[in-house]
Request: fold
Amino acid sequence: MADIHPVPERVRAGSPSPIPDMDRYREIYAAAQNDPEGFWLEVTRQRIAWDKPPTMGLTGSYHEIAQGPITWFADGELNATVSCLDRHLATRGDKVAILWEGDEPGDNRRLTYRELHAEVCRLAAGLDALGVQKGDRVIIYMGMVPEAAVAMLACARLGAIHSVVFGGFSAESVRDRVRDSLAEWVITQDEGLRGGRKIPLKAVVDQALDGEHGVKKVIVHQRTHVDVPMKEGRDVFYQDVVAGRDAAHPPTIVPAEHPLYILYTSGSTGKPKGVVHTTGGYITYVAYSHQVVFDLREDDVFACVADVGWVTGHSYIVYGPLANGATTVMFESVPTYPDPGRYWDMVQRLRPTIFYGAPTALRALAAQGDTYVKKYDRSSLRVLGTVGEPINPDAWRWYYDVVGEGRCNIVDTWWQTETGGICISPLAPVTATKPGSATLPLPGIVPVLMSPDGHIQRGPAEGLLCLAVPWPGQARTVWGDHERFVSTYFQHFKGYYFTGDGSRRDKDGYYWITGRVDDVINVAGHRMGTAEFESALVSVDEVAEAACVGFPHPIKGQGVYAYVVLQPGVEPGEPIEKLMNGACRTLIGAHAKVDLFQFVPGLPKTRSGKVMRRILRKVAEGDPSNLGDVTTLADPGVVDVIVKGAKSL
Ligand code: WT7
Reply:
């Protein structure tokens, strides 16, 4: 019999969820499928504070997406921060909104809803005084400090569009994002702190903006108080921006489809694209999914240990939990600092009831043995979540048995930057789990498995994962390039959103995500495009050509495998590998690194010059036995050389 885990009694008992059991799930799922517009209008009216409640559901469709974005709740008006802050003041003013754990264990700050509201208002007032206007783009390049959340919310307060750039990205990447979004404002900090190391955030911003003239002000929060050069007329300290400002600043009311934020993410080709999320639909979807997946209760402490630089931080550190009036943890450090017990040490001290992390961290910690976990009291935990990549059954069982002591339900949540929120996942008090399966779709989400030639697979099957029906939280477009949005997601299968993932569905209708089927590599839950790696590698003078693919990595999920053709006369070896990884760090960021290099005399190309990536993937995966048809290659001989010289960890 398959490995099925019923919901532990402790998780089921006392659930306040609108979906407390499987029968209700089926009912609500069917209702949402029969009348999506009615369903979501009802959800948003119940959960979101609208200035002008919407009467419209959906406009547009996937079939007509080339003509323009879909809309949800288009005649409604609101400001997202009213749902996240103002409306909680009467009932939850003294409840902790943000519970911050700094890089050093036990370095905590607590901001109540009243304090967070006041701080957001002060920064909004300060930004307003500087000239930030509705619709302006604001780049936020910060570490995991409460001020990063404050900055996001202050932008939203003004109707300005934030674009958070993960603090590991390089100056080059920051510059690309400033240019693409035409941002006029940057909010950063002197230095970041992660695992005892200092990250020179302000210095990177200075480098990124060198020679750029579009940015009017750089606002600098002081985290470490190190001396940073301040550019006359451009740079101002955060403290000076908020000083003397009023603790109440009126929210700018915007139409539902006003953009809330842009978040850049990597795809198969070209530079990262600016995924656009709008206000009304997004806030509705993150509030709803956060409650029903995690079974949020009033006195829960919700600890999502992601970074606000990724969508997980946007949706489930900031917007979802705050819209639901929850206490949300912000974690500045890393799971291995000062030792691999850090998460559980924090759990013992802060007593979160829900913990949400990445499989890659769990695999790394499991490899260190159980004593780091068992040392600490984890009795507060009720729900354990994972996100970002497929979780292998071994890591799942370790999470369930060792971390959760069999008392907690595991929610393996599948979603993407583009989906805005969780789409396929167990609902904590409802769904029996199977290790390695993201289980079932949320109400309103209709997954479809396609064959490569566009036939819908029914029943137990394997295929390309598409979503058939629009939902409010999904991305509307790519910033400045709607055509790219259409061609990336809607051209493979007419009328369907194509996720880029493959999946299997078992006889119980459970989904098992198998990973990306495109040229996106998911390293330690960080999404990177092979094209970005390749252009970094060929920026090195000694490199003639390069092709990158993913390969299975025991800790990181996937690693990066690079096939490199050197210029004539250049010696392969470590010095050139160092140069190439230096280029990845400079052009992409600190988290971008090639794990395995293979030097080859040429790449396998078709006669029309297209690199046959399928062959490269198979060899990198250590499975060169079945390479398929290679007769169309210009030089089939190169395949033997590649197979013979294959590298492994
Ligand atoms: C890609 C999206 C979702 C927020 C963090 C990542 C992979 C995500 C799972 C999961 C298997 C998963 C997919 C997806 N992924 N969650 N539970 N099981 N795969 O967001 O950077 O946009 O990456 O992450 O491949 O397409 P992202």
The domain at 524-644 is CATH 3.30.300.30 (GMP Synthetase; Chain A, domain 3).
